[in-house]
Design a protein that fits this description.
It is a single chain. The chain has helices at residues 2-16, 20-27, 31-39, 47-59, 63-70. By secondary structure, the chain is mostly helical. It is globular and about 25 Å long. The two termini are 15 Å apart. The relative contact order is 0.16.
């Protein structure tokens, strides 16, 4: 499931013309945190930054995160 999710998000990023580096810069998160969020890994540390990345993607219409929010 995580692999499918990661692929769908990466496809959406490509279609939207977004990069993980841009997301990191705009959210204040590190590129590693952005990568972990997209991969579905949610560590205990830096929960605020992970939430900021998820919020950023949700607000821009990333379908995977929107589906999780509505579940």
């Amino acid at each position: 499931m995580k692999n499918r999710r990661r692929i769908e998000i990466k496809k959406w990023l490509l279609d939207a013309g977004m990069t993980q580096a841009k997301i990191a810069k705009e959210t204040g998160a590190s590129p590693a945190i952005v990568s972990r969020v997209i991969s579905g890994e949610r560590g205990r540390r830096r929960k605020g930054l992970s939430a900021a990345v998820i919020d950023y993607l949700e607000r821009r219409g990333c379908p995977i995160f929107s589906e999780e929010s509505n579940a």
